[in-house]
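Worked Example 4.2. Consider the chain below.
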Amino acid sequence: MSNEKQNNLIELRNIGVTYKHFSGDEVRLQDGRTLNRNHDRYFSAVIEEGTAHELEQMGCNVRWPLNQDGTVDTGRKPTVQIKVSSGPDIFSTVRMFLVDGDAVTRVNNNDDLMLRKMDDLVFSGINGQGCTIAVMPREWEVNGNKGTTLYLRVGYFRLAEDNFEDPFAEEFGTAGM
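Applying the procedure from the previous section yields the following structure tokens:
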């Protein structure tokens, strides 16, 4: 976590992205329950242990991976939820980019189809490499409970590179593209 705060922004570099829910769709479970009725948009950032402790001190709800016996699994990294929006509308101040090799594409916040595709995309760095985000912490208090929620301001989401070797690259002149 960067100690440099600019307008209270916190920069998280080389994170992994998991539990993606960019689409904000409701989820219906087999038992009939419905989750995400508010159509919130969010994902979880896979972070380093030191960053996790700093975020906990700020009041963020960091999730530590547990073994079956309830002890912390030190072989896996902790996560923290990042909100893209509270509800279906994404503020215009939120900027998201997909990074695929050398190509950077801005994601239109109003493009529901693209946001649904982002739920299915495989980002590099599930183990904590590749994606960079800037978040704005917001403190909250409800019924005597307090905490801090991290809201996305800018996100560069690096797509996982496949190791597919194109057998036609030489023939069609696309080698290295």
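Residues 49-58 form the longest helix (10 residues). The first strand starts at residue 10 and ends at 21. Compare this with Example 4.1 before moving on.
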